[in-house]
């Protein structure tokens, strides 16, 4: 069952004096005329859009290359900074330990003579522990030049 609204009947738009079957060929004829006129305009538009697309692709390629270059530079920068940070730390530790060597030698001589007692002994042991954590190791045997 379908409901129909009174007064509204579907009728094709047909000029007076023509049958509904005549409407379709005229529509086809007009679309053929539009297609014949359209290729010339579409061709110019297509050429323009193709050129514009090529420019955009070129710009995209340049931006992509720039971005890749910047990312590589940033990674190199981070590696260099980390390497420099490690080098600075090693130099600082080496400088600190080289300044402490004469003091540690004096502490060792005081220990040999039995002069290291009480609070000085615990300070000396703490200092030796700290410099050992920083990487200082005793090498050679006693009495070696």
From TrEMBL:
GO molecular function annotation: adenyl-nucleotide exchange factor activity; protein homodimerization activity; protein-folding chaperone binding
Superkingdom per UniProt: Bacteria
Name of this chain's protein: Nucleotide exchange factor GrpE
One Pfam family of this chain: GrpE
Keywords assigned: Chaperone, Coiled coil, Cytoplasm, Stress response
GO biological process: protein folding
Gene3D superfamilies, per database record: 3.90.20.20
Organism, as annotated: Streptomyces sp. SID7499
Region (Disordered): 1-47
Coiled coil: 60-87
Tagged with keyword Coiled coil: yes
Similarity field: Belongs to the GrpE family.
InterPro entries: GrpE, GrpE_CC
């Amino acid at each position: 069952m379908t409901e129909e609204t009174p007064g509204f009947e579907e009728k094709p738009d047909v000029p007076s004096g023509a049958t509904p079957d005549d409407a379709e060929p005229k529509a086809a004829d007009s679309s053929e005329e539009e297609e014949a006129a359209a290729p010339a305009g579409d061709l110019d538009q297509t050429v323009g859009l193709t050129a514009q697309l090529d420019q955009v692709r070129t710009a995209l390629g340049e931006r992509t290359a720039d971005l890749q270059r910047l990312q590589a530079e940033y990674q190199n920068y981070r590696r260099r900074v980390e390497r420099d940070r490690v080098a600075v730390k090693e130099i600082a530790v080496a400088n600190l330990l080289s300044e402490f060597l004469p003091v540690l030698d004096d502490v060792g001589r005081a220990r040999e003579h039995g002069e290291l007692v009480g609070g000085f002994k615990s300070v000396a042991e703490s200092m030796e522990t700290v410099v050992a954590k920083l990487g200082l190791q005793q090498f050679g045997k006693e009495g070696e030049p």
